[in-house]
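Regression test case RT-17, inverse folding.

Input:
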């Protein structure tokens, strides 16, 4: 039996385990990336491991998230990351050079290689045929040190594309359709592998929009074949040498198949507050809007920006709308400036922002009270924009630009004939904002610049013999890491200061949660299905660790967060019978007797609810390796124990 494309890359990088769906496999990692909001912690962890120089083929540190410098913290962290990169053999993409995923695709990605990044949208690299996955900072630190990255062997879903997109319908509408079909948990444990005749009609940036937002499906990653289209993209980036053809075997067997006829798609929008609450723009009708934000790692390529510029040309943004535009990279930004498209964007009244994540992560541009914001981004979780009662819709650049002019949600197909936007034969190539690391000889003399904002890693504990704690919080389904550890301009600068961050933990759901944790000292969280979906931020595990959380009992977990919990030494447990979720209440007294023994010996685990006088069974979502990690008190302790440091 033949292999799918993802299976071929897995096989060529397999260092441990068996390629049997659901079993843990270890993969050799060729490239890593970090961004600044997760990077500070990842480099502290890398330092703690004591490896002097990265062992990957290429590691890159980007600064793109925390770019609003309203105090010393972010600037200090940038300098810290810059010095870490220089010392340890990592390329450093300076602030202003662009969003990690966009720049990595342009300048570093290579078909057939493995990439992990401390950001959940790392699968953007699947647009050029990489096996690219989001991971917690600690896992990225281990990979930088030459260690494998562990995942459960995924199922492979064949997403067969046929036809060609109609005018004004674009890649964003494709992935919104996939989200409508599969939902935010439909991709858990799966790789979405695109194929079929429709693939060749999509450019690399369009493919990257689709793989980027595969993160919202909860998928391990998404991947496109590497074909002639990939080759021309890499050649236009002056990197044609890295190209190789990659496709599945003729007789590859897939676990599931979905079909999408591109020619039948229409402009779509994900409604508040979930990326899978998808409706067609036509169905939603002329919703009056207050803000439009164009950019983010999903939709900020040269192609997208040129499309936006062509729609805005000669028009003015509606008086009721504030329009922001953030190009994805300095390469894109510079090309828009050179060819005059930027002038069209400025003349229309757009508020042009630097090439960074910006409003996508609540770094400024929060909408007005109860404001309706259309965004070309990938997440519209409650409160993420920085305005608690804002209503965020996720749309394509075409829909966003058309609506910015009309002031109401507008189907771009009303704009007349679409002019094609060609992928340039040559992009503007200039890596002057990417700093190379010091040579191994010079590395010793590089001083690490550490600001006062950097506080210690939270204290870890080996798994105790017994856990006795209250259920300090009970939450429902699809809890995101933005609920657990909110982001935004006020909190993000403190990513290396866990004690400070702890006062915001879960406050989106329950303002009193951090205080309650302090009062009781230890606790357990009870969650619904897909607990921890969304970002890769390990802070959503490290902060609960700091607050004394010993276990999370949920109906199911999102992949990256589940790994982050284990890495932090917190037990991820699932209800053996989901109906038991209904019987446990917040503040019930729970007991997990002999839990250390049960984890070590892989025995059945029972939780005693002393308040209800009942017991229920749970299962630990842990591989044998992760059991040892949790017993040791987390991945750092485990790594130290195993390396003898
Ligand atoms: C996000 O989009 O939520 C982020 C901010 O990029 C996160 C990483 C982080 O929290 O720093 C992600 O997607 O992993
Ligand atoms: Fe940045 Fe938004 Fe992309 Fe996250 S989703 S990497 S915040 S642009």
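Golden output:
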């Amino acid at each position: 039996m033949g292999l799918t494309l993802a299976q071929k890359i897995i096989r060529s990088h397999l260092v441990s385990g068996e390629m049997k769906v659901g079993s843990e496999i270890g993969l050799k990692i060729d490239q890593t990336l970090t961004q600044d909001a997760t990077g500070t912690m990842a480099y502290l962890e890398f330092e703690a491991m004591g490896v002097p120089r990265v062992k990957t083929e290429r590691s890159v540190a980007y600064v793109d998230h925390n770019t609003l410098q309203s105090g010393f913290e972010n600037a200090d962290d940038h300098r810290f990351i810059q010095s870490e990169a220089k010392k340890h053999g990592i390329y450093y993409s300076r602030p202003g050079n662009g969003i990690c995923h966009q720049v990595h695709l342009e300048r570093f990605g290579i078909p057939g290689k493995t990439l992990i990044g401390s950001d959940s949208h790392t699968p953007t690299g699947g647009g050029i045929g990489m096996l690219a996955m989001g991971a917690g900072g600690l896992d990225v630190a281990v990979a930088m040190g030459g260690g494998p990255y562990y995942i459960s062997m995924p199922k492979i879903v064949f997403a067969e594309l046929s036809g060609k997109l109609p005018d004004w319908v674009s890649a964003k509408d494709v992935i919104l359709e996939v989200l409508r079909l599969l939902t935010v948990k439909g991709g858990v444990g799966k790789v979405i592998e695109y194929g079929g005749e429709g693939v060749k009609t999509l450019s690399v940036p369009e493919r990257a929009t689709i793989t980027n937002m595969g993160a919202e499906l909860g998928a391990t990653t998404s991947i496109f074949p590497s074909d002639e289209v990939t080759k021309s993209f890499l050649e236009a980036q002056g990197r044609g040498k890295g190209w190789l053809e990659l496709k599945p075997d003729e007789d590859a067997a897939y676990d599931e198949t979905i079909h999408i006829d591109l020619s039948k798609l229409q402009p779509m929008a994900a409604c508040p507050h979930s990326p899978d609450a998808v409706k067609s723009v036509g169905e939603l009708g002329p919703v009056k809007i207050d803000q439009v934000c164009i950019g983010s790692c999903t939709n900020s390529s040269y192609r997208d920006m040129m499309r936006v510029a062509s729609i805005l040309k000669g028009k003015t943004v509606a008086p009721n709308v504030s329009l922001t535009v953030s190009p994805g990279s300095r390469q894109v930004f510079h090309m828009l400036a050179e060819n005059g498209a930027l002038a069209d964007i400025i003349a229309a009244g757009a508020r042009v922002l630097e090439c960074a994540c910006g409003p996508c992560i609540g770094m400024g541009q929060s909408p007005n009270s109860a404001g309706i914001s259309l965004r070309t981004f990938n997440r519209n979780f409650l409160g993420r924009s920085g305005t608690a009662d804002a209503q965020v819709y996720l749309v394509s650049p075409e829909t966003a630009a058309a609506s910015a002019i009309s002031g109401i949600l507008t189907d771009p197909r009303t704009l007349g004939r679409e002019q094609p936007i060609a992928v340039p034969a040559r992009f503007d190539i200039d890596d002057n904002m990417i700093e190379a690391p010091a040579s191994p000889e010079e590395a010793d003399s590089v001083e690490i610049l550490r600001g006062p904002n950097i506080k210690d890693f939270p204290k870890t504990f080996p798994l105790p013999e017994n856990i006795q704690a209250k259920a300090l919080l009970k939450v429902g389904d699809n809890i995101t890491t933005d609920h657990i550890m909110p982001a935004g301009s006020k909190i993000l600068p403190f990513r290396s200061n866990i004690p400070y961050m702890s006062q915001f933990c879960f406050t989106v759901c329950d303002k009193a949660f951090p205080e309650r944790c302090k009062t009781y000292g230890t606790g357990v969280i009870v969650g619904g299905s897909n607990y921890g979906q969304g970002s890769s931020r390990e802070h959503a595990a490290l902060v609960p660790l700091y607050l004394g959380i010993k276990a999370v009992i949920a109906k199911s977990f999102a992949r990256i967060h589940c790994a982050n919990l284990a890495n932090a030494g917190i037990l991820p447990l699932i209800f053996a019978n989901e109906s038991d979720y209904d019987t446990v209440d917040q503040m019930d007294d729970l007991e997990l007797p002999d839990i250390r023994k049960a984890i070590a010996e892989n025995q059945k685990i029972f939780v005693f609810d002393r308040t209800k006088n009942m017991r229920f069974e749970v299962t630990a979502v842990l591989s044998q390796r992760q059991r040892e990690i949790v017993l040791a008190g987390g991945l750092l302790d485990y790594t130290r124990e195993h390396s003898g440091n």
